[in-house]
What we know:
Shape of chain A: rod-shaped
Largest interface: A-B, 54 and 64 residues
Strand content of chain B: 15-25%
Order of helices and strands of chain B: HEHEHEHHEHEHEEEHEEHEHEHH
Oligomer: heterodimer
Low-confidence stretches of chain B: none
Order of helices and strands of chain A: EEEEEEEEHHHHEHEEEEEEHHEEEEH
Distance between the termini of chain B: 38 Å
Shape of chain B: globular
Mean pLDDT of chain B: 96
CATH architecture of the largest domain in chain B: 3-Layer(aba) Sandwich
Strand order of the largest sheet of chain B: 2-1-3-4-6-5-10
Largest sheet of chain A: 7 strands, mixed
Number of strands of chain A: 19
CATH topology of the largest domain in chain B: Rossmann fold
Amino acid sequence: MTTFKLPDLGEGLAEAELVAWHVAVGDVVGVDQPMVSVETAKAVVDLPVPFSGVVERLHAGPGDVVPTGAPLIDVTPTVVASPVASPATSPAAGPGAPAGAGRNSVVGKVPSSDEELIETVTYSRPPAAAATRGRAVPVARALAKRLGVDLGAVAGSGPGGLITLDDVLARAQVGATPPAIAKMAAQAQIAPTPLRGPRRAMAQTMTLARDQIALSTVCDDADIEAWGKDGGRAGGYTLRLMRALARACAVEPALNAWYDANENSRLLLAHVDLGVAVDTPGGLIVPVLRNIQAKSSDELRAALVAQKEAAHQRVLTGEDLRDFTLMLSNFGTLAGRYGIPQVVPPAVAILGAGKVRRDAVVVADRVEAHLRMPLSLSFDHRCVTGGEACRFLAAVIADLELAI
Amino acid sequence: MVEAIAMAHAWEMQADPRVVVIGQDVGANGGVFRATAGLQQRFGETRVQDTPLAEAMIAGMSVGMAAQGLKPVAEIQFMGFIYPALDQIINHMSRMRHRTRGRLSCPVVIRTPHGGGIHAPEHHSESTESLLCHIPGIRVVIPSSPARAYGLLLAAIRDPDPVVFLEPARLYRAVRQEVADDGRALPLDVCFTLREGSDVTIVTWGAMTAEVLRAVAELDEDGVSAEVLDLATLSPIDSATILASVAKTGRLVIVHEAARNVGVGAEIAALVAEHGLYDLQAPILRVAGYDTIMPLFRLEQDYIPSVRRIVDAVQATLAA
C-alpha cells in the first residue's frame, strides 16, 4: 500500500480545502485518472491519480482543510497493463495525455491542447545562394539611404560585386538633378562649352585641393624701396621672388615638402622645384622650374623665359608640369593686392605676390612713400604649423628687402 | 511531444540492447513529465533504473556506463537541477574522446526539460543552454515539435558522442501531431526551415517557435514575408543555412527565451556579422528574455518574449 500526500501545489500554499473526490474506496484506478478536486486560495485544482492500483482509504472528506504533506489517499498498487500506448500504436491515442487535462506533471501546470500541428519543414542544407540584393558595406548602405540612392541600380566595384562608398557617391552624382545652367543654356539656344585641356585640369585639381587641403593664409608686405629703379624690369619681380623662396626654404624646410594624407607622412625635400603659375588664353598653366636653389640668376631668367614661352605655345610636356615642391603665383602683374592662393597637393605651400605699389610707410616716425610688394602665403595646415609658415614668410620678406 | 519522446526511447531500446534509461523517477513513476512512461514495465528494472536525487551521480554513472559499452539516456528532472552534473558533463563526458585519443567515445544523452511557461516554482523554468553550448565536445539539441522530438532524440541516442537534449516543457502537451513510429532519425547539426519567406529571417528554437509562428501569422497580414529557422542543434550551429537565408532576406531577428546577455543569439549575431555583414540591410536584432532571474509563474509571461515584441523587432528591422 502506498500513501499519497497532498503535494505542494506549486503556489507555496500551506493547505488546501478538499472539494470533491472522484474516486471511492475499492475503485481500481489508473495513473492520471482524475482523483480529487481541492481548492487553494486561488483556484480549484484537479489532482490526478499518481499511481495505479486499488483505493484503500480516503484520509479526508469534502470541506476538510488538508495541510500540505498530510496523507490524502492510500492506494495498493496492482500489476496493470502499462497505461502508456505501446510504441506500435498511435501516440496521440495514449492515455498519458487526456485532452485538456492540463496537469500532467508533479510540478507546475503544463499547458495542453488538442490542436493539431500541421507543418511543412525542410532541412536540406541550401546551396550558398547568390544574394538577390546588392551586397554593400554597411557604411555604403547608410550613405545610399541618406542620399536616396537605390542600391539595386549601383554596380559594385569591390570584391564579388561588393558595393563600396565610392560606388554610392558616383551613383549619387550621376543621378543628381541637372543643374539649372543646362536648362538656361537650352532656353538661350547656346551650347555650353565643355572644359578642355588646362581648364579641365584646373577644375579637377582645384576640386581635389578644396576637398583635401586645410587651407590657411597669412599676408604681409615686403618693402622693396631698396631695389631702386632696376628692380621692376621684366622678369625682375619673379626672379627676386624665386630667390627669396629658395632661401626661405633653407631657413624653414617645412614648406618645401610633400604630404601624404593616406600615410599621414611628410617628405621634406632638399631641392626646390618651383611651379610658376602662367596665365594663358587656354587657361592656367604651371610649368616647373627645377632645382632653383642651385641655379644662378641668369640660369633662372633663361629657364623662366623658356617655360613661359613654351606655356603660351602649348608645347610643354607632362614632364614640365609634374612634381613641383612649392608654387608661386605672381598675380600682381595683372591686379590684386592680397589673395588666398590655393595649395595643390601633395605640395604644402604657395606664395602669391600682389601688385607692387607705392605706400605711405612710417620710417623713423616720419611718413615716407615706399615701394611695397604685398605677399599672401597659403599653406596646408594639416602638415605645416602657423609658426613654420610665418618664419618662412619672414625669410621671404627679409630676402626681398635686400637691395640686391 | 512527451509521447513522441517516450516512443523514441522505446524504439531505440527495442532496437539496441545497449540503450539504458536512468534518472530520478524515470522507472516506476515514468518520469516527472511521463516522458519515460511504460518503459520500466516493458524493458525491466535493469534497463530502466530509478536513481536517487543526485544529478552529479546520474551524470557520472552515465559516463561510466558509456565507457563500459552501454548507451545511457539520463533524465535530469529540470534544467535548473543540471548544475551539480556540470562537473561530470564538462570534465569527463565532453572530453572522453579527446582524453583517450579517440579510443573511447561517450555515447550519453542527458535529457532535461527546458524553459518556462508551466507555472512552476523557482529553478523549474530555466533556459541556460548557452552554458552548455560553450563547452567543446557537447552537442546541444532542442526540438520544437513532436516529430522533431522523436527524430532528433533517436539521432541523439545513436550519436557516438554526448548530447544534451533539451525538451521545451511548455510544448510537452501543447499540440498533437501524427508521428510515424518508424525509427527514422532526423539529422543533427542542421536548422529546420519552418517557413520560407523573403523579407526577414527569424532564427529561434524550442518553445519560442510557437510565439514566432504566431508573430509571423500577424506579419503576414501586414504583407511581411518572414522566413523561420528552427535552430534545433544549438551547438554546433548550422551557419550555412542561416547565412544562406540572410543572403536571401537581408535581415535577421533572433528570438530566444534565455536571457540576452551572452546567449546563443549573440553567437549567431557574431557569425552573421563575420560572414554575412555585406548581405545585411539592417542591424541584427535579438528578442530575448531579460537579464534577470526567471520570475515565478505570475510574471513568467512577461519574461518570455511575446508575440508583440517579436512583431515589433521585425518591423524595426524593416524600417531600418
